[in-house]
Structure formats: structure tokens, C-alpha cells
Fold these 2 entries.
Entry 1:
Amino acid sequence: MFQEVSTRADFPGMELEVRRFWKEQDVFNRSVRQRQGRPAFVFYEGPPTANGLPGIHHVLARAMKDLFPRYKTMRGFYSERKGGWDTHGLPVEIEVEKQLKLNGKQDIERYGVEAFNKLCRESVFKYINEWAEMTEQMGFWVDLEHAYRTYDTSYMESVWWILKQLWDKGLLYEGFKVVPYCPHDMTPLSSHELGLPGGYKDDVEDPSVYVKFALEDEPNTFFLAWTTTPWTLPGNVALAVGLDIPYVRVRQGDEHYILAKARLSILQGDYEVEADVDAKDLLGKRYKPLYEYLVPDKPAFFVVDANFVSTEDGTGIVHTAAAYGVDDLELSLQKGIPVRHVVDLQGRFRPEVEPFAGLFVKKADPKIIDDLTKRGLMYRAETIRHTYPFCWRCGWPLLYYAVTSWFIKTTAVKGQLIRNNNAIDWVPPYIKSGRMGNWLESLVDWSLSRWRYWGTPLPVWKCEKCDDRRCIGSVAELGLTLEADLHRPYIDRVTLPCEKCGGVMRRVPDLIDVWFDSGAMPVAQYHYPFENEDVFKAHFPADFIAEGLDQTRGWFFSLLAEATMLFDQSSYKNVICTNLVLDKQGRKMSKSLKNTVDPIEIMSKFGADATRWYFYASVAVGNEYRFDPSAVQDVVRRFLLILWNTYYFFTNYARLDGFQPGGEPVPVGQRALLDRWLLAELAAVINDVEGALDAYDPNSSARRLEAFVLDLSTWYVRRSRRRFWKSESDADKRSAYQTLYQVMVALSQMLAPFMPFISETIFQNLAARKNGQPDSVHLTDWPVAAPEWSDEELRRQMSAVRRLVATGLAARNAAGIKVRQPLRAVTIADRPLQADLEAILLEELNIKAARYQGQGGDLTLDTEISEELKLEGLARDLVRKIQELRKQSGFAVEDRIRLFYQGDGILAEALERWRDYIATETLAVAVARGGAPDGASTETLKIEGHDLTVSVVRVAAR
Ligand SMILES: [Zn+2]
Ligand SMILES: [Zn+2]
């Protein structure tokens, strides 16, 4: 017998019970284990960092991560879900810096790297409890007991092994390059970090200046060049022109300017074009340096040609500061122009640059503009708003800055990267050639070095004497074991003898980019190749991963790049990229705007199922979410409660009737039309949801299920209610129960990957441990439609009837005739419906007869209302009013009553005429004219301006 179901559903409370059940019965592990030996469905967990509180967007990513392994498990796949934690890097260091109130690297060195790193290690799991709670609360099944951690020696050893492979392939090198550089954290970053949240900011105000460079041999003549970083002007070493760009010399007052003909519009005031100038004639022309500090010893300050010069903005003449631009450095090296820094590693002008010495470059900008203005070298100075990169961790503006550091030669495998990317199924698909494809097309070498403390040390040792280098690929090569701590400062104390000269080799001070750690997880989570070769091979590549769109240049890239360089294939086949979760006004969530959402609070209020469903059903993957708690509440109202009411309806009537599943089934062919229709719909929905999930489309599958639940409630159950109410037990009733039972169980199974809790609750009560079913919905197989359920013709016809019903109701509405008023006839311009479908149509529309005439699907109502029809309509009104009175009097749905009425006129006439019908509908065992006994509920009913006083008295329940 089923447990009684309450009308008032407490979803969060119910979810707690389900969590307890899963834990006690070890359901997650059992669900995985029972598929051992079956084909694998490999999932990789993109490791989060637990040193910050989880946000609502984490629920989004995890909702996706949970859905597919659950689904595939039900489809019979073996899907382990090893958890993981990202533990290294600037995010961790910055939290500890804040906590210790340290400011910058000098402070950390003073505090001591050993103690600092100890705190980093501890702080990594500062919010582990909140993460564990969020994970469990939302029902994300992941194995955190055996989670990999990027700071473990075994993990780091595998990372070293990968780096050694790249070293052996010549893909790891030291180079002098311009990289995005954080002057606060004093470390290079990589260009992929600029794409992370907090990276590029739009609408940043910066100077926009047109500067005059005086020609050496032509008095009062100047090259005009444009820049938005005046601080790079003291570092100017050359000017670049484009050979195919036409230039002109113009006169303004006493001065002459040289610029591109296409850029004359930047000039202010009248001017006279004096001559066309060929770019070739400009080459080698010398100009006076703006600043004479740190003047290089080799030739500089002349015009060179470059292919990156354009006339899209600026003047067509490009100011070149060798050390502060990617193009600038490349050009300078190519033309033999000396490269020197005027700015130190903290982004401050060096002492030699006297007027600005010690000033942070961005603070020096206005002073440089002032200075050049005073000296008559500023043609035009204003401000612009543009996009500029910032440090994604500390928020400081980044500088493009030339450093000697370590790189991975990703450009050498660009072709393979593009090819392997093309083999990935991206959801949404436009990421493949869009965000990811574009990124790969404009690929630069991976800037790997981080000049920091808490991270995987770059395993390269250099000889003090002969500068020979050696890359280490295992702890054994250092004479260490897995017990060793490979972090700084310990690793820095490990020296090696130089095989070439016998000198001492010391490790380079660099750490590696934390994104390299996470991209190594397919290999490093199993400590491959040092152990677990079989396990690794069985789990490579992943069938499925999911993360936010911002990971295109983060984890999605590092996974792809490392697997391509190691194995020449991608490490994942399918990837879901979720977009941002914005607030309801479409603003990004941030602490400063106070619009962040606590996921634990939302789930405690509305339930994890509703929260998950919101993320599946509200938009297609790839679109932004406009998150509003009331939208989750809407899910409860629009969907969960409808589902619950259907479940409630079924269960409580089944209890009343003592329905037992597993009885002799009524053959599908002998079931009522509605039952056959519902089974046909069920077969279709199983097929559709399966198809959508196989295509990694959560939105279509969720919406399909939503539509099905709505059909089930508003069409099947509403139209079938009487079949469950009737007191005699016959084949029709049995058919109804069996059909709805089958549907409820299959529905709980289909909902299980999406809403693991309510599906479990329904399954537990209806099917668990009955007729060979397991004790949890998550241990069942995905439902399979019986071949005899399918009936496309019936689905088509029913859908046509429902369309006619909608048209008919609209026509009634237009004619101002309520549905309770019966009408004589409807004329349908189509082929006749089969009898049982016609009966449904007529009942829905409350019409006596249908006529068929012509074609085109139109429908015309006969709106003439006879006296007879009028009385019938009023009788229906009376039924509704009496039902309300029953409810107000606190009677249960099944309570029998006695009905009394006083008065005469048309309402009394209608009651007399339709006495039996009204008695049946209102469960009245007797209907009598006259006063009611004591204790009766009495009310004067008003219908269309007529009155009738009615009383009801409860008799015994059945
Ligand atoms: Zn920074
Ligand atoms: Zn040596």
C-alpha cells in the first residue's frame, strides 16, 4: 500500500529526507558500482577552489555536471565521478596576503615563504564545509572522498612528467617576450587569463594623445604619433610606418606635420597639404628623442617599416616602445633596435628617468602629458573610453612588459589544436569556431612562468657555471619520494650536479601557471604514468565536461592544449559551456553591487530540485540567465506543484481504492482512449527526452518533460477524474489506475537525472522494492516504451481535438457565452471525428451535437439558447456554487451530504429539472425543498440575478 501524500508539499524538507536515505543506503556508490564492467561514460570534474564561498553560478555548472552522468548511468553506462580541487595559484596567495595584511612580494619574503605557503595550504579548504554542503544539498553526485588535489605530491609529479614530455619535444623554452604583467603581484600572466572574469574591462577611461616627434634635419617639422599609454613614451625607440600607406606633409601655422593621408581628420583647425610623401622616403629618417634618459648605446630614434601599421586609428605612424608591446618588441628585435626598460618590475619609473622616478606608470601619465605640453610636443591630448586588461585576481591594471620567462610553444601545434578542437562537440555549437576557434587562430605561445610562491615549481634546473639546463620529470630523479613536499622553499634547496661541467645546478625560481595544473588533471588525477596505467587509459578521453563559458581560454584550453601536445587528441569529446548568471536587471553579480545570491539560502527556501530545474528549463545552454529568486519560486508553482498534485491525486485515490501495482494488466488495446493516448504520449516523451539528452541539450529535454507533465495534469487527469471517483471497480477503472501508475513511475525515472529528490520521493512511494524494482529510482534503468504504446495516429487526432477545443472556447468567449451554458450544436469544417474523440470535444465545449461540413478545420457554434438549454446551464452553475459551499463548510471531497433549498423561480426550476444530476455531482444523498436542520450551512446563491437559498448537511463518509 502506498503512503499517504500530503496536499501541502514541503520540498526542502523532503529533500533532506532523501539525502539521509541516500547516505544510509550508499545509493550513489551503488549506482556507480552496479554498472561495473559496462561501457564507460567518462566525466571529468573541473576543479573548483574552495577558498571562496560557492555562488549560485556554481550550482548552474554542477547541475549540468550532475545531469548527464546520472542519465548515462540509468542508460547502463559505468560513470565514475572523481572529484577534484584546484589548490594553487594567485587566488590562494591573495587571500592569505589579505588575511596577513601583507602588501606585495617584499612583505611575503619578509614574512617567510615557508610560513606563507603553509597558510596557503590551509586556506585552500577554508570554505570546504560550505562547498560540501552546497554539493550535497543540490544533489551533485561526485566522489569527494577520492578527490584529486593539485597540491599533492603525486599530482605535481605527474605535472612534472608532462612538462618533461614537452621539454623533450622542444616545446618548453625560455624566452624574452612581452607578456601581460601584473605590477602588483609582480608576475607575468598569460593571455588566456585576460579572458577570465575580472580580466578585460570595457569602458575604461585612458588618455588619448597625439605626440609630436621633431625631425632632426628639418626644422619645425614633426612626425605625429598616437598612443593611449603616455607612460610608454619615455621608452620610445622608433617610429613605424607602413610601406603601402600614402603619407602627406601638412602645414599648420609655422609647423609642418607628417602623417597618413587617410588620417588627416585628426588634425584640429585649418591646414594646408604641402606634399605627398612616399613611405620609402621616410625610412631611416631620424628624430629627436622625447626623453634623453636611458638613451641606448645602439642606434635608435629613426623611422622603420612595419606590417602592423594601419590607418584604422591614430596617425598611420606608430610610436614604438620596444619593451612594452608585443609588436614593438618583435619589430625592434628584427630591426636591431635596442630594447631597454625605463620601468621596473613594480611598474614604477626607474631612478634614471628623473622627472618621473618612482612613479607608478598610470600615475605618471598626466605628468608626462603636462611635460610634453609645456615643451610644445603635444599636438592634442584628450581621453577615450576603451577596453583594457586588468589582473583577474588583484584588479590592478596590467602592463604589457618584456620579461625573460618560460613559455610553451603552443604555436608549434596550432594546426593540431585547431583540428582537435574541430573534433569536439561544443554546446552551444557556435563556441567551436567562435570563441574557441578565434582564440586558437590568434594563438600565442603560452606564458607559463609565475614569479610567485604557492604553486607547482617549474622543474628546470640551471647550472651556475655553464648555464646548462635540465628538466626533471619525476621525484626519483631528485632522489626524493612521494613523501616530499615539492613546494617552495623546500624544492629550491634541492641542487643537482651538472653532468656537463660538474658545477651546481639550481632550480629556476619560476612557478607554473595554475591553469597548467588543471589542464593536467586527466593524467595527474591518477598519478599517471607512475601508476594506474589501466585506470588512466580507461578514463581518457572524457565523454563529457561542463563549465562556464569563461573557461574557453581557461580549463577548456589547458585541457585541449596539454592533451594535444601529449597525445595529439582532445581530452574531451563533449563540452557544455554555460553562460553567466546575471541578476534580474541583467547586471553581473558582485559583492559591491550587493546582488549576489547565496545558493544554500535559495535551495533551503525553494528546494534544490526547483533550483536545478530553473537552470535546465529557463534558457538554452549558452544564453545568459537573469536570475531572480521569484523565478525559482515560479518553477515550484508552474511545474513542481502540478507534478505534486498529480502524484497526490493518484496516490490518494489508489490508497482509497486499494489499487495494487503488479495485478493482471489490462491489455493496451483494451484500455480507454485516453489511456491509450497517454501511453502513446509517454512513448513519445521517452523518445524525445532521450534524443535531447543524447545531444547534450538539457533545455529541450526539460521543456519536453514540462509539457508532458502539463498534458498529464490538465488533460489526462482532469478528463479522467471521474473514472477514479466512481465507486464500482471495473476494467475501465483498472485500466485508468494501471495507466497512470505506469506513467508516474516512468516519469519519476525520466525526472531522476534532473530533479533527483522529488523523483526519488515519488518512486520510493510508488515502486521501490515492489515487483523486483530496486530501492532507489537512481538504481533503475531508463524507461523503455513498450512497442504497443506507440500510436502516432491517436496522438495526431487528439492534438487536433485539443486544437478544436481551444478554438471552440475562444468562440464561446467571443460570443460571451460561458462554458457552463450548454449549446445545441457545433459545425466543424472537417472530416468527422471518430465517436470517442467527438465525445471528448463535445464534453469539453459543453455542446450537444457536432455537424461536419466542408473542409479547413474551422468551427462554428450554434449560439441559440433554448429554455431547456438555459435550465441546464443554470443547473451547472448551481453545482459549482454548491461545491463551493461544501468546501467553505469544511467537508472532505468524499463526504456525502443532504441538500435543502428554499425559494422558487427559475433557479428552483432548474434544480427540480436537474435534481439527479445535481445530486450526483455534489454527492447529495437527498435533495429536499424546505428549511434545513440545525447545524446546516446555509447560503443564498445568486446566479444571473436570480436567488436561491441552499443548505448542506454532512452525512457519514463512505
Ligand atoms: Zn595582480
Ligand atoms: Zn655546468
Entry 2:
Amino acid sequence: MITNGSRVEQPAMNETSAPVLAVEDLTVEVPVDRIWRPVVEQVSFSVRKGETLGLVGESGSGKTMTSLAVMGLLSRNSARIAHGSIRLTGQELVGAGRRQLDQLRGDRIAMIFQEPMTSLNPSMKIGEQIVEAVRRHRPVSRAEARRRAVEVLDLVGVPSAASRVNSYPHEFSGGMRQRAMIAMSLACDPDVLIADEPTTALDVTIQAQILDLLRQMRDELGLALLFITHSMGVVADICDRVAVMYHGQVVEQADADDLFERPRHPYTEGLLRAMPTLVVREGRLPLIPGRPPQATMRPTGCAFSPRCPYRIAACTEVPPALFSTGDTGVTRCIRPGLPLQGAT
Ligand SMILES: Nc1ncnc2c1ncn2[C@@H]1O[C@H](COP(=O)(O)OP(=O)(O)O)[C@@H](O)[C@H]1O
Ligand SMILES: [Mg+2]
């Protein structure tokens, strides 16, 4: 039976404040045997000031390609935005010139990565790197930029910032390097911070400290935080809203509390079941059976259907549209009223 649920074009939005970042119907393609094929398709989400949106999904689901598109960092010959809109406080970034994107990046919108050395130059003192980042966007003296460098290192909890500003990245521990990268990203006081798996390479204690720091920065600076992770545990820790990605598409989006309490997409349910706390409870790892299809292959019906325990014939025939699941939620499942078993 195909149940209720009204079809919607975009995720419904809570109207309390206008989004700082609004992505609509974004499709990103890569060339495979000289034919452009989508690896991100019809992705829509928005993030408000002071809010954290989690973008969650297995490796290869299109999270990084989505964030690189938002940053204007897709490399020209190996990926392209084929469709959609990316607006930063109302300003359209799709189709914007390279100079304009260079101006915005690091100033209004910044990104941190899993590996701090992606952003930090190993042969340059940390303070110098922050000074350069500030002066790229602000007409300030070296002395002023240096004061800013000490200020942001202090802000992110680097002890003795006034002297550590003269250290090289290799003189910092992994956790401190991550703090330095966060400091550099915040130096120009951005509106949006994209964090792409920023704690994945860190041990659990440091991971918790960095999550605390990002939460604190979001609240104190009013950042719109787009937090990318493959871990539902991390999502539970930091996100207000969640967009779940599978095979290049957002398959479910909801407030974090709702999503954990009542997942509406079978893939979300699978991710919740795979959370480590449940492993302890159940004594086994309830992995989702099967593998996602190759990113550039288009299955006929729902991309998750081969792995879905709730599959019916129609699932393999038509690609599912987004159905609304209440005030703010959407699911890309033709059975939105399906009572899933939940994570517990
Ligand atoms: N230039 C490319 N050519 C072909 N496939 C690509 C290219 N770049 C990325 N992909 C594929 O796009 C998919 C999405 O990648 P990515 O956004 O990095 O995933 P995630 O960050 O969720 O792990 C992956 O399956 C990846 O192999
Ligand atoms: Mg990635």
C-alpha cells in the first residue's frame, strides 16, 4: 500500500529567522567516461544563524561534494554544478565569478576539514597564517592582524596564545592543530562555518573537546554551522536539525529530536541501529546489509530499495519524491506513513 503524505518540492521551513545559507535543488555532476553524471542530486537544506544542521550519511554519499559546491571549491574540470541554487544571506553563489567567490570564502563562509593540515601550511608559523587570512579580506595593518590572530587562538582555547602564535603546526598536538584551524576559519568572523568530519581523526576525549568548542563558538558568534559527519552519535551531540544523505540525495530531513525518536526513512533507521551505544546494549553490530550503489549509477527506483527491509514492488519502479512528515520533516520514501521499528 502506498500511504498518505503530501508531496512537497522543498523541505518546509520554520519561519523564525531567514536562513543564512539556503541550498535548493542542488545537483553536482562528475564526468564518467566523458559523460556528466550526478553524484549529488536535488539536494535542499538551509541553516539559520546560531543553528547546527547535520549532514549525515555513509562514506561516498555526497557530503563532501555538497560542501565543496557550497564553498565554490569544486575543481573546474572534474565536477560541475548542473542545477540549483546556493544563497548566502540571499546572495546567489551559483554562477558567481571566481573573484567574488574568493572574496566570500574565508570571510563570510569558512570551512574546516578532518585533517587540519589540509588548511595549515606546515612551513609557516600559525600566527603568520592567520595574519595572511585576515589581511586577504580586511584592510588592516600587520600589527592589527597579529592582534586578531592572538585573539582568535585565545578564543578557541590555545593556552598562552600570545607566544604559541609563533609556533609551527608540527609543534602543536593533533587537538591543538584542530583548534588552530578553527581559529583561522573564525578570524574574519564568518556567518557560515562548514565542518567536514572535523573530529573523525581524533581520539574520543579530544573529539568531545572539539565538539564542545564548536558548540560554544556557534552560540557565542551566532554561526550557522553545517556539520558533516558519518556518525549519528556526533549528530546527537551537536545538531539541531539533520539532513540524511544516501547515494547523493537527502533521503530524510527533520529536527534532531524527531529524527531520533521517529525515523521516517528506513536508511535513517538503519543508521540509528548502527549507533555504538546500541551495540553495547544488543551485543552485536546491527549493520545495514548490502552496499550503496556506485555513486554515478542511477537505479530505476529508490536507491536504497535493494537494502531496504520494507521494500515493496513499487519501490523498485519509480524514484521516490520528497514527502512531508509533519511541520518541518521530509522523507524520500513512498511509504512515509510506515511505522518503522525505531532505533530501540
Ligand atoms: N571526480 C570524480 N569522478 C567520479 N566520481 C567522483 C568524483 N569525485 C567524487 N566522486 C564520487 O562522488 C561520490 C561522493 O563523494 P563525496 O562527496 O566525497 O562523499 P562523502 O563525503 O559523503 O564520503 C563518491 O562516490 C565519489 O567516489
Ligand atoms: Mg567526505
